[in-house]
Structure formats: C-alpha cells, structure tokens
C-alpha cells in the first residue's frame, strides 16, 4: 500500500491513477497531520510526501516519521516543486529515500516507487551476517550494531552499507551504487550518493572511517581499521 500526502487533489488523483494501474493499492491524506495519523495506523509500504503542505510542512512530517519507531523504516519519496540542490540535500538529511520534482512524469514516479520497493537486501556470496571489527550487519534481521549497540539506519542507508561492506576492499563508483542501491543511473543524481554516504558515516561514528572516498572515482569499504 502506498500513502500519498499531498494537498493538491488533482495531483493526488493523477498519482493514484498511475499507481493503481501499476497494481498498487493507494490511500491519500491532504495535510501533514492527517498523513502522520494514516502512516501510524496503516503502516504503508511507502509514502509519497509533498514538501509544501499547509500547517505542517513535509520536512516536519518526514522528521516525525523518522523519529517514531513505528514509522521510521517506511521509505519516503519526496515530491515537491522545489528543485534546488539544497532542498534535495535537506530532504535526504531528514531521511527521505528519493526525491522527485514537479512537474513530473507519472511513469517516472511509478518507476521510482518500484525501485525503492525493490531495495530488499540480498546477501553477497551467501553472506547472512557481515562482521568487520566492531561492526556487525545482520542482513536477515535488517539490523546493524557496533559493539552490540544498535544503530538505526533508513532502508536506503542499510542497503548502501550492505553493498559497500559486501564488496569490501573493492572500489564502488557512484554510478554503480546508484544502480545497485537506488535502482537507476542518472548523472544528475550522483550527489544523492554523497549525501547518503555522509549520513551513513555520521551514524557509524568512528567505524564510518572505514568508508574511504576515492576522489573522482567513488567509495571503498576497507577490510579493517589501519
């Protein structure tokens, strides 16, 4: 089920039509407070969230979703008229999984939704648990811990960490990470990877130093701390 939080009914109707054509069930809310209530009650598979909402804007809604244990793991796709890079960065820093600007292609939006929902982590080379020093990644349980202390990651951050850790020692280009983690490749979205890497490092603390930046190339997860 997809939850749309958008105050313009025409846009809701357009998105709802194309999502239903793609086989999704859809519910809608026309303001931030109602959207939060729907998210808590119905626990949708994904939320399409407008940034510019009356009373409670999309940034506050996203912040509330990601701070609530009941809703923090629900992927969020931000939909907004704002297209400046800083707006995208703010959205990702709040925990959004993807970002689409208005005017948008309904077909592209559906493809983005499908790409987000496909981000179910599969172990690399049969690995179920990855342990690198103090870092423990339990893929089946979707859990990450450092020195047995749980680390809360979004679904995209978790997928990104697993992709890097599963290929530790090998360089991963931004384009490859976009394809593997986000499910699409587009030059204009390379900064998406950089923003998520920064957030991931912050959450991992000192262990985040294991994620190396290779300027002009991409990223590499070291085997262990030097």
Keywords for this entry:
8 helices; Arc Repressor Mutant, subunit A; alpha/beta; single chain; 2 domains; five-stranded parallel sheet; Rossmann fold
Task: Furnish the topology, listing elements before pairings.
Blueprint: E1 2-5, H1 9-21, E2 26-29, H2 32-42, E3 46-50, H3 58-67, E4 76-80, H4 85-93, E5 98-101, H5 106-117, E6 129-132, E7 135-138, E8 143-146, E9 149-150, H6 155-166, E10 171-173, H7 174-182, H8 190-204, E11 211-214, E12 218-221
Parallel strand pairs: 1-2, 1-3, 3-4, 4-5
Antiparallel strand pairs: 6-7, 7-8, 8-9, 10-12, 11-12
Describe the structure.
The chain has 226 residues and is α/β, with parallel strands linked by helices. It has helices spanning 9-21, 32-42, 58-67, 85-93, 106-117, 155-166, 174-182, 190-204, and strands at 2-5, 26-29, 46-50, 76-80, 98-101, 129-132, 135-138, 143-146, 149-150, 171-173, 211-214, 218-221. The chain has two domains: 2-117, 3-Layer(aba) Sandwich (Rossmann fold), CATH 3.40.50.2300; 124-221, Orthogonal Bundle (Arc Repressor Mutant, subunit A). It is built from eight helices and twelve strands. The protein has a five-stranded parallel beta sheet, with helices on both faces. A four-stranded antiparallel beta sheet has the order 6-7-8-9, covered by helices on one side. A three-stranded antiparallel beta sheet has the order 10-12-11. Strand 1 (2-5), helix 1 (9-21) and strand 2 (26-29) form a beta-alpha-beta unit. Helix 4 packs parallel to helix 8. The protein starts with a strand and ends in a 5-residue tail after the last strand. Mean pLDDT is 85; it is low at 121-125.
């Amino acid at each position: 089920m997809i939850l749309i939080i958008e105050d313009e009914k025409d846009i809701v109707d357009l998105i709802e039509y194309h999502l239903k054509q793609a086989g999704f069930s859809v519910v809608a809310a026309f303001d931030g407070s109602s959207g939060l209530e729907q998210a808590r009650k119905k626990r949708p598979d994904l939320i399409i969230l407008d940034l510019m909402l009356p009373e409670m804007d999309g940034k506050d809604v996203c912040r509330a979703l990601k701070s609530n244990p009941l809703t923090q793991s629900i992927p969020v796709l931000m939909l907004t008229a704002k297209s400046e890079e800083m707006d995208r960065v703010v959205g990702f820093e709040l925990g959004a999984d993807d970002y689409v600007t208005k005017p948008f292609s309904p077909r592209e939006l559906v493809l983005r939704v499908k790409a987000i929902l496909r981000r179910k982590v599969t172990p690399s080379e049969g690995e179920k648990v990855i342990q690198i020093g103090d870092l423990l990644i339990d893929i089946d349980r979707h859990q990450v811990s450092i020195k047995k202390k749980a680390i809360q990651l979004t679904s995209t951050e978790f997928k990104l960490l697993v992709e890097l850790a599963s290929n530790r020692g090998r360089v991963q280009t931004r384009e490859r990470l976009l394809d593997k983690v986000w499910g699409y490749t587009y030059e204009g979205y390379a900064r998406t990877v950089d923003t998520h890497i920064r957030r991931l490092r912050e959450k991992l603390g000192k262990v985040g130093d294991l994620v190396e930046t290779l300027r002009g190339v991409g990223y590499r997860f070291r085997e262990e701390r030097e």
